[in-house]
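Data deposition worksheet. Section B asks for the primary sequence of the deposited chain exactly as it was used as input, without tags or linkers unless they were present during the calculation. Section C holds the resulting structure in token form. Section D is free text for depositor observations; keep each observation to a single sentence. Incomplete worksheets are returned to the depositor.
Section A, Depositor: J.P.
Section B:
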Amino acid sequence: MKTTGLAVSDRELRDLLVTDLEIISQDEFERACRCFAGAVRPGGTLVGAFLNRSDHYAVADYEFPGAQATRESVLAAFDGMIADVAIEMIGIVEEEIRVGYSGTILLTATRA
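Section C:
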């Protein structure tokens, strides 16, 4: 099966979960990450993209809250739930590229 250019089998597709979160607090961010990891069976693959250091972001005329994610906070949120972790920092800049966005933290891991 081919989905948006990513080749996955039917079994792998059952292990795939995609979500978009509007996070208000750090506690909520950590709880959401743990629920996300918990929804993937052990041995399944997790892929997560997080806005780096974003406390909010805008789409058209709408503002959405963020959780100020950092490499360290993402790793801490998934602590004990994932293995074979890789984090790639993509397009990280000191100044915001646009409101609430200074790059992306891409996590790939296996559910422990």
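Section D:
Residues 2-111 form a domain with the Rossmann fold fold (CATH 3.40.50.150).
Helices lie at 10-14, 26-38, 71-77.
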